[in-house]
Specification:
CATH class of one domain in chain A: Alpha Beta
Radius of gyration of chain B: 23 Å
Number of strands of chain B: 2
Strand content of chain B: under 5%
Number of helices of chain B: 3
Structural class of chain A: alpha/beta
Distance between the termini of chain A: 19 Å
Distance between the termini of chain B: 28 Å
CATH topology of one domain in chain A: Amidase signature (AS) enzymes
Order of helices and strands of chain B: HHHEE
Structural class of chain B: mainly alpha
Strand order of the largest sheet of chain B: 1-2
Helix content of chain A: 25-40%
Largest sheet of chain B: 2 strands, antiparallel
Oligomer: heterodimer
Strand order of the largest sheet of chain A: 1-3-2-4-6-5-10-11-9-7-8
């Protein structure tokens, strides 16, 4: 990562990033730009460097911020009409931490509204295009962040991952994307989606860059009671696997998986073998139910989290109101996207009396079985290997007519989310048509750095 | 469908009902496959790491935003209060 110093000016880094953003404007990567404030911050850093003062670990590094993180720079829209005029009075802990180290936000990146989606097509501001093929989707929900990184507009970007929203767009655009262990990074100041699986992570092109950004963002925060004590403290080269054994999840290579995706991920397994890892195939039949568990629990939490948008205290209030009830109903109706509404309604359905036991409670019990299956696997393996998504990036508009088809995109990313486990999308190769494909490494809780060290080993071996 | 919309504080028009019902039916039928799983005697998981209450001292702390900033966010306000249409 290029960091500002005596020879590299922060202002030049920011100008270059802004110029690139302009060059790739047609990809619809950003919802809003932060040029003026970014250049001012860069000038401050250059001045400090000139004076010989200490600057942070990310001094002058431009980055893209998924537009569901709060900060004073620009509006936090979550790509939804209901929030498009919302200027946050607070700053997300993750943003505060990386900016304290000198990172500079150049723009707010596009997403599916409220992070509901796997393509960035559910954005109020229109879809983001794939970095390798502009007739295809960016993936989602953190599509803008992934494409900003892939197009080299920025060297890293922040995203959020509730059921695959970092990993899948990382796979579709050929960059690293990490969903850390649940609780590794504070959620404070990030627009809530499903609170029991929301995680904050990042995109970058090198494993060590991912590690650097995450080591800064991670740690306990009094403002998020689920945060874990900071464990992101090691040097990647010193992290060693205990067994040197990786489990390849056979269930993820069968029906519904694009043969090219399966081949590329298996080849990544071969690279691991060449580095001395033993690769063993095993079955995890419970994974078949992962998506069903997720599409009960997640909408339930979404329905609850999105009930705060009532048009009363902040954000959009409908002009068409005669009563207080109109304020609630009409503001929500005008402000949410179709997919937001579907999830709210499904959530309220599975939580409603009479259906609670059959759906919500059942899913939370099945979640326990899923966690048990992972625990069993980690008795044998350091990490698990499977694809990120069943296909490479699909065509814009291809999956928008049927929500369930879009949900199936998440089948291999949601299980790790439901178990709170760290999972890394590693750029593993390209299809014949030149579309990027990612491999997914899943580890036990708090083994995030082990996953990165494994990926770095492969990266280093290929650089030789 | 209308009851569900009401619970969700959303309104749906006549012509939205059928397509929305079709979407929700297919999603509900998909999640219903959980019935195939035997979960007898299994405890539900609400928090992955079995975290219990996390306490802090009950002390007044500075909040980064000021009262005026928060009030300024409201679509309508008057005399330091947020204004809504008449309830009664």
């Amino acid at each position: 990562m290029k960091i500002a110093d005596k020879n590299t000016k922060a202002v030049d880094l920011v100008k270059a990033a802004l110029a690139k953003a302009e060059e790739y404007k047609d990809y619809n990567v950003f919802i809003s730009m932060n040029a003026e404030a970014a250049l001012a911050k860069a000038a401050e850093i250059d001045e400090k460097i000139a004076k010989g003062e200490k600057v942070g670990k990310l001094a002058g590094v431009p980055y893209a911020l998924k537009d569901n993180y709060s900060s004073h720079d620009g509006n936090t829209t979550a790509a939804a009409h209901i929030l498009d005029s919302y200027h946050s009075p607070i700053t997300a802990t993750a943003v505060a931490k990386i900016e304290a180290e000198g990172a500079i936000m150049i723009g707010r990146a596009n997403l599916d509204a409220f992070a509901h989606g796997g393509s960035t097509e559910n954005s109020y501001f229109g879809p983001t295009k794939n970095s390798a093929d502009d007739t295809r989707v960016a993936g989602g929900s953190s599509g803008g962040s992934a494409v900003a990184t892939a197009l080299d507009i920025v060297e890293f970007a922040l995203g959020s991952d509730t059921g695959g929203s970092i990993r899948q767009p990382a796979s579709f655009n050929g960059v690293y994307g990490i969903k850390p262990t649940y609780g590794a990074v504070s959620r404070y100041g990030v627009v809530a989606m499903a609170s029991s699986t929301d995680t904050m992570g990042c995109f970058a092109k090198k494993a060590e860059d991912v590690d650097l950004v995450m080591s800064i963002m991670a740690g306990q925060d009094a403002k998020d009671s689920t945060t874990l004590p900071d464990y992101w403290t090691k040097n990647l080269d010193e992290v060693k696997p205990a067994k040197k054994k990786i489990g390849l999840i056979r269930d993820c290579f069968g029906d519904g998986i694009d043969p090219e995706v399966a081949k590329i991920v298996r080849e990544y397994g071969d690279k691991l073998k060449a580095q001395g890892f033993e690769i063993e195939e095993f079955d995890m039949p419970i994974l078949k139910y992962g998506l069903a568990i997720y599409y009960v629990v997640q909408p339930a939490e979404v329905a609850s989290n999105l009930s705060r948008y009532d048009g009363v205290r902040y954000a959009l209030r409908s002009k068409d109101v005669k009563s207080l009830d109109d304020v609630f109903v009409n503001s929500r109706n005008e402000g949410f996207m179709k997919e937001n509404k579907r999830r709210i309604m499904i959530g309220n359905f599975v939580l409603s009396s009479g259906f609670y036991d059959a759906y919500y409670l059942k899913a939370q019990k099945a979640r326990t079985l899923l966690i048990n299956a992972y625990n069993e696997a980690f008795e044998k393996y350091d990490a698990l290997l499977c694809p990120v998504a069943p296909t490479p990036a699909f065509k814009l508009g291809e999956k928008t007519s049927d929500p369930l088809t879009m949900y199936l995109e998440d089948a291999m990313t949601v299980p790790a989310s439901m178990a709170g486990l760290p999972a890394l999308s590693v750029p593993a190769g390209e299809t014949e048509a030149g579309l990027p494909v990612g491999a997914q490494l899943i580890g036990r809780a708090q083994s995030d750095q082990l996953l990165l060290s494994i990926a770095k080993q492969i990266e280093d071996s290929e650089a030789k | 469908m209308l009851h569900l919309a009401e619970l969700s504080r959303l309104s749906i028009s006549e012509e939205e009902i059928e397509p929305l019902k079709k979407d929700l039916d297919s999603i509900v039928s998909y999640i219903s496959q959980l019935n195939e799983l035997n979960t007898d005697g299994v405890e539900p998981t609400y928090q992955c790491f079995d975290m219990q209450n996390v306490w802090r001292e009950d002390e007044i702390q500075e909040f980064e935003a000021k009262r005026e900033d928060l009030l300024a966010l409201a679509p309508e306000s008057e005399d330091n209060q947020i204004k809504v249409p008449k309830v009664l």
